[in-house]
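Give me the fold.
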Amino acid sequence: MGRRKKTASVEIQIDSAEIGKRAYEKWLARGCIEGYTQQDWFEAETELRAERAACVVAFEVREKKRAEKREEELRLGFKAEQVEIGEPVVDQSLPNLPSGNGLNG
């Protein structure tokens, strides 16, 4: 079985077969030179762990932003998706202003 390590809130699991595959790729990239088995294994495991940790951090940041958005929506009383930014809404019940005042086209 692979080795395990915890990040802030998620346990990262890396399968030994995955580490072995990455270590093998490193060995091939080096030109199949012997004597670096432990180094290749350690580097492979370190790389895989860093890649997974980056994914976990990205996920946690995204979820934190979503939670903050939900809190803001609750505070304001509407969902951000309900607010459409674009052309201003003209209240037809208001009287038209005379042209030339800089407020109308």
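The chain has a mean pLDDT of 78.
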